[in-house]
From TrEMBL, chain B:
GO BP, one annotated term: cellular respiration
Residues reported to bind [4Fe-4S] cluster 2: C48, C179, C182, C194
Protein name: Ferredoxin
Residues annotated as transmembrane: 273-295
Protein keywords: 4Fe-4S, Iron, Iron-sulfur, Membrane, Metal-binding, Repeat, Transmembrane, Transmembrane helix
Keyword Signal: no
GO-annotated molecular function: 4 iron, 4 sulfur cluster binding; metal ion binding
Cofactor note: Binds 4 [4Fe-4S] clusters per subunit.
Subcellular location: Cell envelope
Binding site for [4Fe-4S] cluster 4: C132, C152, C155, C158
Co-factor requirement: [4Fe-4S] cluster
SUPFAM superfamilies xrefs: 4Fe-4S ferredoxins
Amino acid sequence: MAECHPVGFQWVMEAKARGATIIHVDPRFTRTSALADIHVPLRAGTDIAFLGGLINHVLSRDLWFREYVMAYTNAPMIVREDFRDTEDLDGLFSGFAEQTRHYDPSTWQYEGADVAAAAGQRDQWALMHRDEEAGERSAAGRRTEKASSMETAGAAGGRFHGHPERDETLQHPRCVFQVLRRHFARYTPQLVADVCGITEREFERVADALTANSGRERTTAFAYGVGWTHHTVGVQYIRTAAILQLLLGNIGRPGGGILALRGHASIQGSTDIPTLFNILPGYLPMPHAHEHLDLDGYVSADAGSKGYWGNMDAYAVSLLKAWWGDVATADNEYCFGYLPRLTSSHSNYDTVVKQVEGSCEGYFLVGENPAVGTSNSRMNRFGLANLTWLVVRDFNMIESATFWKDGPEIDSGELTTEDIATEVFFLPAAAHVEKDGSFTNTQRMLQWHHKAVEPRGDQRSELWFYYHLGRIIREKLAGAVSRETPTPEQAERDRPILDLTWDYPTIGEFAEPDAEAVLAEISGWDGEGRPLSSYTQLRTDGSTRCGCWIYCGSYAEGVNQTARRKPGREQSWVAPEWGWAWPLNRRILYNRASADPDGAPWSERKAYLWWDAEQRKWVGHDVPDFQATKPPDYRPPTDAEREDAIGGSEPFIMQADGRGWLYVPTGLADGPMPAHYEPAESPVANLLYGQQANPARRVFPHRLNRYAPSGETPGSEVYPHVFTTYRLTEHHTAGGMSRWLPYLSELQPEFFCEVSPALAAERGLEHGGWATLVSPRAAIEARVLVTERMRPVTVGGHTIHQIGLPYHWGDNGLSTGDSANELLPIVLDPNVHIQPTKADTCDIRPGRRPRGRARLALVQEYQRRAGITAETGTEAVTRRGGPS
Amino acid sequence: MSFTLDERLSAPLMDPAAEAGYAEHPPRMGFFTDTSVCIGCKACEVACKEWNAIPEGGLDLTGMSYDNSVGLGASTWRHVAFVEQATPNRDAVDLGMPSVPQGALQDDRELRWLMASDVCKHCTHAACLDVCPTGSLFRTEFGTVVVQEDICNGCGYCVPACPYGVIDLRPGDGRAWKCTLCYDRLGAGLEPACAKACPTDSIQYGPLDELRDRAAERVDALHEAGAEQARLYGHDPADGVGGDGAFFLLLDEPEVYGLPPDPVVTTRDLPAMWRRAAVAAAGTVAAVAAAFLGCRR
Amino acid sequence: MGVRAWIEGWPAVRQIAGRDPLGRGAAAKSDRSRMLRARTEDADRMVRSVCPYCAVGCGQQVYVSGERVVQIEGDPDSPVSRGRLCPKGAASHQLVTASDRQTAVRYRRPHGTEWEDLDLDTAMDMIADRVIETRRRTWEDTDENGRVLRRTLGFASLGGATLDNEENYLMKKLYTALGAVEIENQARI
């Protein structure tokens, strides 16, 4: 956190000054470790084992927060009898089909109820059931759809069919609590120490500090970055932390939570208002392909949905009205049919493969530099070189814009400039001070930045670019330019564009669209055009328009709420009048959990939100994340729907049962509970299960994307070291905003690798000299920093060396070097399609890498020595002693 | 107010601005750099360069841990030192510094990564200023020491005079440059750029008296927490430079951070030298006179 | 300036006549030093902004003189950052004012070996044509099983995490209306 979010780290230092214990769990000794009270240098890729050990510690010593867990989690729910755990199946849960690499989650369900997936999967859930009943489609067809159902992880949620059986005593052998206890029983301190390469004492020190600092009087917060998400089991990393925090009562309370430290100014915003394939604004799912799908079917026709996702119909209709305005009517289902449909994953890496294969011909790169910043950047460049047209919008001439001229494949002779047919448009972008707009920061807070000056020359904002691109396309399609008459089919296809509400007011000589007008549309209006103040005002009858329901109210009363800047020192410590946090300016989500079931604070020290019996409403330091006047003793009638189905002591209002999930009966592609698997590429065998890696991980066998043998598979010794990639304080991601700046470049002028003295001695690496690193994808070179901050770990009696690789570099700009991401494989978490960048394998050798064709030859020589084939590393199910 | 020559040059001096001729002046302002909370982010280096429009200082990977700006100089007015220390493990209490990896292979080793942002000390007795023949270096009403770029002729006398090796000539430009403690910002009631940017308040700016009190409290707190190595550096008006306007809290010996353990103003002996020079000169005069007298004989 | 004042301005005179007999303080102060002002004091305006790097969301004060950004520093009012910035945030001024930042459209024709100049309006028109053409050629009304698709997989987009919410909104809205679904950003990378 000190490395990548230094200014946020001031609050950690402040907490430390007030007595907090700071624990840093990271394979590397970083600038964060230097200031922490405890640093745990665990082996990269073993956090589930570590966190699982903490869960076992909490459960086996009865250190869990009983009252919180009983009332606020799904601990009492009883799981189906035919559910089988990884402990029964040597690393698999029940329902795994090896052929398709997918889980059928039906055995994971509660007894007495089917729980539909989160909102993001509802559409597919309904579809699966229909298919099964009809039995009319081929097995392959069903498979595709089931697959895609797991690929659309939207927000949390879940919907019951029926009522799950419960055991409030938590004694039933199949209640979630007991299932969890059994599942984690083998994650003992000894096992944690063995898997993670640490000592039991280190583990116990953390366990003691954590549990001593949780409960009524105290809370513990977890903060993580992509060190937790960049794994083939990334979602399960977060799940493990969520289970632990729920057991300790640390969710929804001040000083608690699991905080994602996100790395781009509006990466949260670009997820909320997604430039992502599988969701629409506000985490509404993109519809999947069906023969017939109407709006009702999309929202799911079944009545009786519970929780706030029960209002998905109102959110969806209001979005469609915002986009297609008066054309969108009840009669045409508010233009629901205009939405394009998904058939499978269309994630970034699927696109890269298609580009290499030649079936994706156009590409917009908008503030992204995949030739440096994306896993297997070499494969990305082959994709770029195979496009018909490419638009790059950036500040500087990044590597993704110049690959055709000076990319590594030109040097190696694999590509020649004259043969590359890609037409490239480079358009210079406006910077944050040259445009109005809002960023959503890592705590879901929108903050407006005001334009200070006009951009220069051809520099323009993305708002300008997309508005005018849309305007020109609309003009052309309307025949205003070409005057040609489209065919009826074509006219039908063009209607979504021509009917689109696209009439934003523009300002100034460049005709810049008014960003506030766009925010106003995002926030929404009622039927009379008055700004909305809350998503609870959204209607299903088409009378409201709202571009993103969770942002509804960000322009309440016609005032840009995101531009509020009452100085922090002039308001409460929660600072509610600075910016605007979604939803409804709530600063801590699920804050109903900061009070006990009766509505009283768990302790005076940790009071945040409480029920005021006289005023009959929730009061406190924050906006209640709960119906403000719903009393703690409210018990929903059995036929209650939407938010009315959530009881007065059920804080998790986005869940159908109002509870935090210790066990996930549906919605995840790789299991209802986390289990430790080794990374897709690992030098060691899984000590817990015969199953080596996440069986449901997505693999992309391709000649440009070969995998290393893992664990006990012969050949794994050819790539014996673990490498982990990361950022430095002095640079930003792929370098587009830092490598061109003298003041940052001089602070970290060159690509380097970090190795321990032991590895340096073993491999003859010289401090300050050069090293070549080889993976099955690429060979790169880096200057060598030998440092005791990198430490080997011992696992199963073997010494495992870990190599650190900051990944900011490319050939352009002031500070240059090879890109560490060349080494990384494309293999994905099945829930969210995220790649592993934190724990993969390579070899390291002294000296610079070969030039020209010899570079590729070196990679191929390693592949041959390791016996790598197209199948290597792609196996789904493995047993002890190697792949099955 | 009157000052003895010793006070002016080396003895403890309570009010350097008054000594420098400012009848009415603001309190002496300075830096307290608490390295125990430094995260080595180098925001100070960049903020300083941005405000003062200092040129880039070279793109060389040094291999000195994460330090690629090497040291203070004409184009580096704030410099963050990175010290990687592996020492035999002293069975650790929580020192505010992690005691590391009891578990990993070298479980007998304890690792510390010390980071410290260095800067011109703005000495009470500043030799750079004393030796400056042009009056380019001067003491401001805030008690700070500043090079005036419109006066400096690049003679370079100040460079060897500095006991800390702070000030230097900029190649190509020829003139001497160093931290001004953002003299222009101070005049506007602003804090220096580095102190303002510092994410963890490792760099604190304020009236020197207040900073010294705060620093003493911080050292006590660290000692109480078991960090017995914590100590102040440059805070003592009785030291060889009369105390620094920019002083530090360190977690180890000053040499570990590349700081001289016992800096002395290089002009401390100037009066004595002048006296000796005067005696020598008188002797010469006498000898010459004697020679002349002798000639007449 | 009268002769008397002029003479009194001489450092040597100030040194001898004043309280600074060694000439190391008040007497040595140059005209430039006397006139020195912080450039933020003389700025035409200060504009509130937010740091464009990571997602902490530190407040920034952007100072403008003569329609140029002359300084960017932390906003002390921000309850997020309290006026502080990291090295990247502190370098924002260089980010936006760097002399080598691109200001003109550049065009590389298919198989071309060098960049060429291109007018912005022409570039926009050409890009619009590329989108329309690719979309038409790669349009899918239904799949082989007759399921409705209404889309194109012919072009894709990557980016958004560094952009404003309003920009992401227009991107998603336009792409979706065009039937493009391969829309991604750094959130997954």
